[in-house]
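During the no-cost extension, the postdoctoral fellow (Dr. R.K.) reprocessed legacy sequence entries with the updated structure-token encoder. One reprocessed record is reproduced below for audit purposes.
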Amino acid sequence: MVLPKVVIQTASTCLILVLTACVGTSPPAQFYLLEPLTVAEGIGSVASDKPTLALAPVRIPQYLERAQLVTASGKNTYQLDELNRWAESLEDNITRVMLQELSSLVPADVVLTGSQRAKQAKLRLVVTILEFHIDPQGQAKLAAQWQVSRGEEVIVSKQSAFQIFASSHDAQLKVQGLNQCLNRLNQEMAAALVF
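Re-encoded structure tokens follow.
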């Protein structure tokens, strides 16, 4: 018995689709957030006797404006980790963590520059992240420029760099290392703030 050509082609197509579906699965993506390493007491409460610090939204370089974790694989070469991603915009995440940590580290109400209370701020803090990734040796690296001003007068202008061994393979350890670098930056800036 000879099967019609159409039946053979249809069966072959179905078999190919079934095999492709079985082979084409990949592990699910993991999502990460930076978290404040110190917890502020009473965040959100208005304390009128405290001075106000206005924090500008943190700026990051374009190579970090993506969901994937970024790892340097060599000189001038970076890899994007498709399976390990930031759960929100890295710029927003860093700004939020910085706001929360500084709120617990400095004797001031820390607010974003766009808020109504920012108009009363005695000091303004502007931070630009220059580098925030894992290097080929598994070191978490953070470099940032930051500036504190009182009115129009710049009272502190500094560039800081931090490096902590994290991992070259484990994404959770990479994020923890980057988180520790951010915490150290926040501690350094807090120590420089004089009201």
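The chain has a mean pLDDT of 89. The beta strands are 30-32, 52-55, 68-74, 77-86, 109-112, 123-134, 139-150, 153-165. The remaining legacy entries will be reprocessed before the final report is submitted.
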